[in-house]
Amino acid sequence: MKMLNKVLLIANPGSGKNMAETYAKQLQTILENTHGSTVTLRLTTQEGDATDWASCANEEGFDSVICLGGDGTVNETIQGIIKNERQPYFGFVPLGTVNDLGRAIGYSLNPEEAIEQFKQVTPVPMDIAFVNDKVFINVLAIGAIPESVMETESTDKNSLGAFAYIKDAVGAFFSQEGYPLVISYGNNVTAIETNLLIMALTNSVGGFESLFPNASINDGLLHLVAVKGSKPFDLVKAVVERGLTQEESDSLFVISGEKFTIEVDPTSHYPHKIVSNIDGDEGPQLPLDITVKGKAIQVLQPK
């Protein structure tokens, strides 16, 4: 299937400091002048728009779908793309606060530079994962800090950028409690009390590329790290150790695999529900069944 012949552009107008529509029109011009593309631009007005439009790409004759927005918009768009019998090519202009997937693929975090990169792109396979019935494209997290990030206001993200997350995370850091979890993978089962669990598909997590430096967008693996302990000091110690070693340590549980189950330890009698954070937004509550689908979509990567 030819790429960038008939393109659907989906833009979240509130992203990129409310500049997404302007950037989308700039990208439209680039695609028309460079690739001779026929472009349709749609602006989202509510949650689910990107999924609905991307899921009809085959039906409407689009061979490529490109979105402009943050990780939430990217996630929604991919959820739609995978519903097509013949999946269209996928690309995006990162306009979020952290833009982990954009970093991993190689898009510039400067929107105008990222738009210029669409003059020369090539399709490469990319993994996605499923958490229960929901797609995740980059990061799944469990803990007080990820929960605080889900509550960060969009207005704060636009005005403060990454500092909005830091502001909300500081309070969560000092009020952390341990979550009693059971992690199943392959024929193994591990019980752990942790104040932070992170699972990623790429090497970029929260803007840092050192947590899983050997991960790639198409290695067919889920990469998991969890702090052993529930106190703030345990997290600090774990961060220091992760900077020194990529292996499991006294403070960190580390494992990679294709399928995981994460549930509340039934022997703990933990009284509260535990909710996951998927790509920065609220995900399913535990228990979680997580499976990677290797090379599931074709993403347009800058040359």
What structural class results from the helix and strand content?
A: alpha+beta
What share of the residues lie within helices? Answer: 25-40%
Shape descriptor reads elongated
For the secondary structure, the number of strands is 16
Radius of gyration: 19 Å
Strand content: 25-35%
Q: Tell me the CATH topology of the largest domain.
A: Tumour Suppressor Smad4
Contiguous runs where pLDDT drops below 50 for at least 5 residues: 152-173
Largest sheet: 6 strands, antiparallel
Number of domains: 2
The CATH C-level name of the largest domain is Mainly Beta
Task: Describe the fold and architecture.
- The chain has 303 residues and is of the alpha+beta class.
- It folds into two domains: 6-119, Rossmann fold; 136-295, Tumour Suppressor Smad4.
- 31% of the residues lie in helices and 34% in strands.
- Strands 6-5-16-13-8-9 form a six-stranded antiparallel beta sheet, covered by helices on one side. A six-stranded antiparallel beta sheet has the order 12-11-10-7-14-15. Strands 2-1-3-4 form a four-stranded parallel beta sheet, with helices on both faces.
- Helix 5 links the parallel strand 3 and strand 4 (89-94).
- Helix 2 (20-35) packs parallel to helix 7 (111-117), helix 3 (49-55) runs parallel beside helix 5 (71-81) and helix 8 (144-150) packs across helix 10.
Q: What attributes does this structure have?
A:
six-stranded antiparallel sheet; single chain; Tumour Suppressor Smad4; alpha+beta; Rossmann fold; 303 residues
